[in-house]
């Protein structure tokens, strides 16, 4: 089973470029949705004591800070991964298409 999944991944180079682009875009959308879900769950647990009809100012400030920290951290990690991939040309070439 493992060889069939790796052969299909290796075969992506021969796939129609439009289809490959579509797959990349959809994968990016999925990753973004996962990040939003993680951020929502993390910040909700951290900032929401007792759900009510309105957010109090403390909870609102907590959500803003939590989201900003999550975004900053995610951006830092992505930048670090990008730097790492640039130092490995074989791997980065397959991702840049």
UniProtKB/TrEMBL annotation:
Entries under Pfam families matching the protein: zf-Tim10_DDP (PF02953)
Origin superkingdom: Eukaryota
GO cellular component, one term: mitochondrial inner membrane
Chief localization: mitochondrion
Keyword field: Chaperone, Disulfide bond, Membrane, Metal-binding, Mitochondrion, Mitochondrion inner membrane, Protein transport, Translocation, Transport, Zinc
GO biological process: establishment of protein localization to mitochondrion; protein transport
Record localization: Mitochondrion inner membrane
Membrane topology listed for this record: Peripheral membrane protein
InterPro entries in alphabetical order: Tim10-like, Tim10-like_dom_sf
Domain Tim10-like residue range list: 22-83
GO MF annotation: an example: metal ion binding
UniProt record similarity statement: Belongs to the small Tim family.
Self-association state and partner proteins as the record states: Heterohexamer.
Function as written in the Swiss-Prot or TrEMBL entry: Mitochondrial intermembrane chaperone that participates in the import and insertion of some multi-pass transmembrane proteins into the mitochondrial inner membrane. Also required for the transfer of beta-barrel precursors from the TOM complex to the sorting and assembly machinery (SAM complex) of the outer membrane. Acts as a chaperone-like protein that protects the hydrophobic precursors from aggregation and guide them through the mitochondrial intermembrane space.
Record comment regarding domains: The twin CX3C motif contains 4 conserved Cys residues that form 2 disulfide bonds in the mitochondrial intermembrane space.
Protein name: Mitochondrial import inner membrane translocase subunit
Organism, scientific name: Sousa chinensis (Indo-pacific humpbacked dolphin)
């Amino acid at each position: 089973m493992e060889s069939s999944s790796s052969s299909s991944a290796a075969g992506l180079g021969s796939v129609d470029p439009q289809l490959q682009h579509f797959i990349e875009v959809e994968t990016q959308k999925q990753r973004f949705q996962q990040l939003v879900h993680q951020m929502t769950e993390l910040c909700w647990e951290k900032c929401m004591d007792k759900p009510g009809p309105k957010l109090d100012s403390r909870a609102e400030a907590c959500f803003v800070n939590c989201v900003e920290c999550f975004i900053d951290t995610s951006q830092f990690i992505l930048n670090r991964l990008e730097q790492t991939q640039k130092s490995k040309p074989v791997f980065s070439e397959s991702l840049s298409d």
